[in-house]
Amino acid sequence: MERFKNTFTFKNDMRVGWFLAKRDIKRANKWTTILIVFVMIFTFLNLVVVSGILVGLIEGSVQANKQRNTGDIFISSFLNKDYIENSEDVVKVVQNIPGLDAYTARVTSGGRVIAEFRNTLLKDELQNAVGTNLVGINPIDEQAVTGLSELLVEGTYLSKDDPNGILIGKTLLYDEETPIEFPGFTAIKRVKIGDTVLVNVGNNKVEYIVRGILKSKVNEVDGRVFMNQAELRKLVGSNLLTYNEIAIKLKDGFSQDLAKEALVFSAVDTYGRVQTSEEAQPKFLQDIKKTFAILGNAISSIGLVVAAITIFIVIFVNAITRRRYIGILKGIGISKRAILLSYVYQSIFYALVGSIIGVILVFGFIKPGFAAHPIDFPFSDGILVATLPDTLKRVVLLLVTTIIAGYIPARIVVKQNTLSAILGR
Amino acid sequence: MIEIKNVFKIFENGDSPIVALNDVSFSIPKGQFLTISGRSGSGKSTLLYQMGLLDSPTKGKIIIDGINTEELTDDQRGLMRLKSLGYIFQDYAILPSLTAIENVLVPLLMLGLDSKEAEKKAKEALQKIGLGDRMNNLPSELSGGQQQRVSIARAIAHAPQVLFADEPTANLDSETSEQVMKVFLDLNREGQTIVMVTHEPEYAKLSHRTIFLTDGKMTSDVMNS
Hints:
Chain A is an alpha+beta fold. Chain A has two domains: 8-64 and 285-423, no CATH class; 72-276, no CATH class. Chain A is built from twelve helices and twelve strands. In chain A, strand 6 (196-201) and strand 7 (204-214) form a beta hairpin. The model of chain A has no long low-confidence stretch (mean pLDDT 88). Chain B is 34% helix and 28% strand. Chain B is built from seven helices and ten strands. In chain B, helix 3 (100-110) packs across helix 4 and helix 4 crosses helix 5.
């Protein structure tokens, strides 16, 4: 009696399950296998690519904001202050932080740009002007951090000793082809490269020549006017060497958090706000990013349910049509668990092959494709966000789903009476 | 070795239950070649299913090698079929997606034999029943007789204590049937206990003993000369 008190060992069950599954897959109808693998590939792509694109639309904007505006670390004046306190000392600290690649210190001021200022205004005619944020930069430092010259769509970049040149963001210029017209929005009309405009801050007015027009998908660039720092100081009427923003670019691979810690350690956070590029993102971007991530996960979940149903049907039909086969296996003493495992292995095979091909497609073609040709979104260049750890998590998710979806129908059939299954009753 | 004690098998069929086995009792000593005969519907196969642990009697006991099979769980019955019993079906019941040798290998692997040992035993079993040259063929590439031999090889490869055969020659021509019977007689000569259902008297006569069933009742128990 003791001989039969033992139940089947898991090791043997796994071995026999694998033996049966391997042969079932090998001798299955080729087209059926291809079809199932296709479903798995598309499910995987649905899981990774849909949410990846949704997040990527915003990530493009986040990356652009970092690359063209904030750098890796952004120091700005407190909201209740006009400038970063002890600006010169802060700059000295910045120059010595570990991992520094480049930095640019900016002076900002509200101002007004007036075009066609020599024209006499008719009765009730409004001045051709726009209110904006004027930014005083060191063109070389700015170029090193944000590559501002790369954003020129017309004209030339500022030279360091250009006393009367300015660069205007595209949003400030009225677009005849696609005009933006809503209450409160103003833009200057008929401004070309080489035109002279009047820039006014308080009671001070200085004429400048438009050297270039900038276009990016970052509002902090497109909605601003850039000039040499010394010129803006003169215009504002300040001799103090103060700054309003400092954007810091770190060397590749250097941790933003470590750099921020170094700045905080030197008490820079008592003089101004110290933020990583992520913290410095506009709040609406953070909100959209979260919303799109939820939306992406919701769409992915639907894909996952479809994959689960597909595998369930495939395994159920397979097990039902092979009810007698399963009955014979049980009849000759093969354990139920070994038979169940053979179906689970088949599910794993389909999910793994689908995922492996999916990973190759994502990292070999789709992601590089999106990087080379981003989606032209109004406020960003949409890329595909797919990191290897996140992708592997989704592979595991797909595997678990298919294992469950394969196990349940197989269990339903395996539980049936052995003799009835053999005799087809 | 096998004791059948007052076995009943009753199938529920609305208000009129069908008594397929009616108080059947007998015992089979080790090494005996026993045939079960009777007309169609007499309960021959039903009795074999109970003895082969593919089904459970409604009442009564089946004791194999001192073990009351009534007390075994479903898994333990499966394990007993795997370790101690061999089963040959009328329609061969070999697995269509596996080759001849793979069909024989599956239960050996389930027993925990390593791959090489299992393969050696499977080859030996196939060679023993004259299928050494068709080992790697799929069932669809084998004749009915060859498929039945695969079924026999699968049933004997693990040296079971009892071999059950349910009308193994019913689907075969006379020449192939004789070859199959010869395999059984050879196995029995080597000491294999065999219980075979047949309705062919000439094959029943080749066994040591024949039990006749009529409407589920055992009507005679004859020792063949």
